[in-house]
């Protein structure tokens, strides 16, 4: 396995300042003189008052700006938003109306896309263990591309395609290039569960088998090397490996594949001073690498697809918590809030770090170091360790956490039978509920009793 590039989003010389918001807060975030903050022109204190805490706030304007920035940076490519980062009907609609495609990776995500009539041709269906039922639903809806991850699902899919139809497929190849902020989210190397290995021969076998299925059309190759990647080099390297494989297929079968999907994984800023991967920089560097390698191999340049998830929704999200308890224990001051690892499991899963601010009032107190924790029954239930907070922080205060728009709502759980927070969308001075708060009754509804 070749691990390329840095593992977190720190500034580089190539990074272009001004890619929307340079820091971790969403691009419409503003502090007010009274110590409050607004997003999309709406006071966060008012949102907390109206919708309660904890609440996820998502900035529609910022999401739309990010969609547009991707389309502008890659006008000749397909930009597919990776739904796993954050999906609800409103989000699917924003993405659809901004002209993006949608990457889904489960029957549930497909069902949501279908429920809002997301154009089937613009859906890419993923998964390393798609059930026959999921494959059936994907074919039934007529999704544009199914990404085959293993040899087993080739025949399984082929029998589901109605006679006279051809299902476009991509083959997910393991380029043996990986990068990403944590081992658990590096997905491009040999020895992890995703994709078809070039080393074992599975990739070559899969090409052969797909070409033998009249109901399947091999449209191209796919790879996804990891997530929260801050530099372009790993993407360039993966692109070169993939183009080489496309040339091999041309040499073996005389078939020129028209598409190359390079997955997602673009990093964002979580802390002040960090910068996300700028799509303009990504586009310039990666298209140059593809063009150069294609020219060297005498291959036409394929149509590119990218699948950013975090980079579209992550910076647009803020989580609001209410402080419940402030407690000094040993040398640590714990600020305990009304949420935690059930609405944000990322610190405990990946050691992820976040930026936060006391909002809703102005404090004249000096700052001190505190650890913000949740209300769950684990000492690892930490939202942010050793962060700066006004020394007079007290129960009833509001805390806003930046850059929680990706992999927070989508990874939330009901641990300790905690109801999951609502999602409040803000735009142009108005706030509206797009996902309601889970109620205790929701938590009991599946429990059929004794
Ligand atoms: C196949 C695929 N595409 C896209 C993504 C989106 O990743 P990110 O949110 O890091 O852009 C993922 C998740 O890492 C993925 O597995
Ligand atoms: N869940 C991960 C990202 C995984 C990306 C999906 N392949 C995170 O929160 O960073």
Automatic annotation (TrEMBL):
GO terms for molecular function: diaminopimelate decarboxylase activity. SUPFAM superfamilies: Alanine racemase C-terminal domain-like, PLP-binding barrel. The keyword Repeat does not apply. It catalyses: meso-2,6-diaminopimelate + H(+) = L-lysine + CO2. Pathway: Amino-acid biosynthesis; L-lysine biosynthesis via DAP pathway; L-lysine from DL-2,6-diaminopimelate: step 1/1. Keywords: Amino-acid biosynthesis, Decarboxylase, Lyase, Lysine biosynthesis, Pyridoxal phosphate. Residues 62-313 form the Orn/DAP/Arg decarboxylase 2 N-terminal domain. InterPro entries: Ala_racemase/Decarboxylase_C, DAP_deCOOHase_LysA, De-COase2_N, De-COase2_pyr-phos_BS, Orn/DAP/Arg_de-COase, PLP-binding_barrel. HAMAP family: LysA. This is Diaminopimelate decarboxylase. Homodimer. CDD domains: PLPDE_III_DapDC. The modification N6-(pyridoxal phosphate)lysine is found at residue 84. Its cofactor is pyridoxal 5'-phosphate. It holds the Pfam family Orn_Arg_deC_N. Residues 1-24 are annotated as: Disordered. Pyridoxal 5'-phosphate binds at residues 265, 307-310, 407. Its EC number is 4.1.1.20. The keyword NAD does not apply. It is an enzyme of class 4 (lyase). Specifically catalyzes the decarboxylation of meso-diaminopimelate (meso-DAP) to L-lysine. Belongs to the Orn/Lys/Arg decarboxylase class-II family. LysA subfamily. Substrate binds at residues 310, 346, 350, 378, 407.
